[in-house]
Amino acid sequence: MLDVCLLGTGGMMPLPHRWLTSLMARYNGTSILIDCGEGTQVAMKEKGWSPKPIDIMCFTHYHADHISGLPGMLLTMGNAEKTTPLLMIGPKGLKKVVNALRVVAPELPFELQFMEITEPEQTFSFDGFRIETFRVNHNVICYGYNIVIERKGKFQLDKAMALGADMINDVSGGEEAMWKVLAKHRAPYILTHACEITSQCPTYDATMSQVLDFLQARLDMLRRLGVADVVVDPGFGFSKRGLCNMWLLDTLPQLLEWLGDIPLLVGASRKHFVREITGKNDIVEASVAFAKLAMERGANFFRVHDVAAHKHLI
Fold first, then answer.
1. CATH no. for residue 137?
2. Same domain, 165 and 125
3. What is the pLDDT of residues 74-131, one digit of tens each?
4. What is the span of the domain harbouring residue 65?
């Protein structure tokens, strides 16, 4: 899932409730910042997102309202103990512009890497996605960015069951048509809370109320349709802010009590927030540390990318 947050949409002049241009995106453990207007790190804090896990920064052009926030952002990332390299992508002259702005931020605990765009259209490939750049009309050299994730083929549940699938891991929150097929095949099913916590400033009670209401409605429907073998995933990282994920972790024992004999699965592997909660920069180490915390709170199953790194927990 690609998470996108418009941190600021103002041009030239920041307004009381509208920060200068910046966008942050997160996908598969990678965080991308596009443009960094003045005060971007403050806007990020207001949204509950962290600057520490930013891996890639892209700049459309070098007008001040799109890049003047860079020194403060770099210092904030350093103060957050970021040590992993930061890749910067931008039009020709990127390194010169960044180094000029770094006069007030000369010492950083992480390496800066640069990729300059030299063609009208250029593509940069990463793990599971690519960033496409293209020239746009402006009075200076300026580029737009596409974050492209290749779509997979549509999953056909009936065909999967006929081919011998043992369990359905559904991160969408499910739908009645799918559940009827599951009931026909008597297949085990993982139900995931995949909805955004809608409160603007979520509290512990609001978070848990929304999670439990979501799960209760779907568990009732699954029982009515005859799907009896269910595992619940509370949906760590699915459109939830860092604080909501922390609350979910701390309340796993209460959630397990509420579920009764329904097992609980935790699927937080390689998600950006595990670095914030565990304090570990390496995404695999952070994922293992988070799984250990969840196991100590009673989690029954884990969905992971790095099986060998997690095996010692079992």
1. 3.60.15.10
2. no
3. 999 999 889 999 999 999 999 999 999 999 999 999 999 999 999 999 999 998 899 9
4. 3-148
How far apart CA 262 and CA 256 sit, in angstroms, is 8
Q: Is 166 a catalytic residue?
A: no
Q: What is the pLDDT of residues 206-225, one digit of tens each?
A: 677 888 888 999 999 999 99
Same-domain pairing of 163 and 71: no
pLDDT of 201 reads: 45
- Among the three residues 116, 148, 180, which one is the final residue of a domain in this structure? 148
Catalytic residue among 65, 166, 250, 261: 65
Q: Give the model's pLDDT for residue 241.
A: 66
Please give the model's pTM, rounded to 2 decimal places: 0.56
